[in-house]
Design goal:
Radius of gyration: 26 Å
Number of helices: 17
Strand order of the largest sheet: 3-4-5-2-1-8-9
Helix content: 40-55%
Strand content: 5-15%
Length: about 350
């Protein structure tokens, strides 16, 4: 049995961005499921044998070969026999920069990943790249993560990605995986590259079909505005990305890629209320109160703070909104007429709003 550190941990160390929190993945050559279990490793992989180390809990996978037998990233058969070599295992990885192994300080780099790291190239290892549609998303995500280093997609890899779109292979992507890669891309400082890469190969119209004629053509700066946002919160960036879209379109997208509820709610609130929020002082008291009620500003305080953060990123002044929100939140309920408390609260809020805007004019 031989164990090798592989993938992202090796790549990130060579880039100088590894830290104590960098996840470590290992490949095991010349072993078997039975031997790993006997050594105390816990098996977690369902499609192929992956094990957790009994001490570190790091992932150890048996070296494997794979054969395409169906569509999508699940359409593979795996060979994890003891005869599979390290180079064979590395040969089925997505990009050359992820196909470098290390053992006792020595690098094993059969596909020249170090050279591509030095040249800032995202290049596929082999034509088997085109058998797994998730790799299109991964390349786009790596482009976003490593944009700061000037990384570009190799022309040959770009052609393969376009062919995968044309052939329909990209259509086999699962909604959950699309969202997972999107969320990671939005957590980086420069997510614009993610959208640009997908747009360049035509995958954007397949993974975000309801946005193909809108979000991907309306911005002259081609998503660069996302890189200028003073936040790495993916929920907030998601809402900013879609702020020009209609509520119906956002709901269609979120259902299509199975977004968590917090993403859907915040994005739809942004779409629905950003214009009103920007012109709140021009609205009548009833409209202003409707804004606070529909955004649930007084009860869903954390979500409303996120909404205000989005408004700030969109250039909307939120200090008056905060001041008015605080005044509405400080109503002394005990002093109101109890005979019709709901109407009394409503009227009190209207008077606070009217007084607030009259005092600021």
């Amino acid at each position: 049995m031989k164990k090798y550190l592989v993938g992202g941990a090796v790549r990130d160390r060579l880039l100088g961005i590894a830290s104590d929190n960098t996840e470590k993945d290992w490949v095991v050559v010349g072993s078997s499921v039975a031997e790993m279990l006997d050594l105390g490793y816990r098996q977690v992989g369902k499609e192929f044998p992956v094990f957790l180390h009994p001490g570190t809990q790091e992932e150890y996978a048996l070296a494997r070969l794979e054969r395409k037998v169906g569509k999508g990233y699940k359409g593979f058969e795996f060979d994890t026999s003891q005869q599979v070599t390290l180079e064979q295992d590395l040969s089925r990885r997505d990009l050359t920069i992820n196909a470098i192994a290390e053992k006792n300080g020595e690098l094993i780099d059969p596909f020249n990943g170090q050279e591509d790291l030095n040249n800032g190239l995202l290049k596929h290892v082999s034509d088997a790249f085109s058998e797994d549609p998730v790799r299109v998303l991964r390349v786009a995500r790596f482009a976003a993560r490593f944009k700061v280093f000037g990384f570009k997609v190799a022309h040959s890899t770009h052609r393969l990605m376009k062919d995968m779109v044309t052939s329909g292979e990209v259509d086999a992507l699962t909604p959950e995986r699309v969202f997972k890669e999107l969320e990671k891309a939005l957590s980086y400082e420069t997510p614009s590259a993610f959208f640009k890469v997908l747009s360049a190969c035509g995958a954007d119209a397949r993974v975000f079909p309801m946005l193909s004629n809108s979000a991907h053509t309306t911005h002259d700066n081609e998503f660069e505005f996302l890189d200028r946002l003073d936040t790495n919160n993916p929920v907030i960036k998601f809402s900013v990305w879609l702020h020009d879209e209609s509520v119906d379109t956002i709901e269609q997208l979120c259902q299509h890629i199975k977004c968590p509820k917090e993403y859907t709610q915040l994005a739809t609130l942004t779409s629905q209320w950003r214009v009103i929020a920007d012109q709140l002082e021009q609205q009548n008291a009833e409209s202003v109160l409707t804004f606070f009620n529909r955004t649930d500003a007084l009860r869903r305080k954390q979500r409303f703070e996120q909404l205000l953060a989005i408004f700030v990123l969109l250039g909307i002044k939120v200090e008056p909104i905060k001041q008015l929100r605080d005044q509405l939140n400080d109503i002394d309920i005990a002093s109101l007429d109890k005979s019709n408390i709901a109407e009394a609260i409503h009227n009190k809020k209207l008077s606070i709003i009217e007084l607030f805007y009259n005092s600021t004019k």
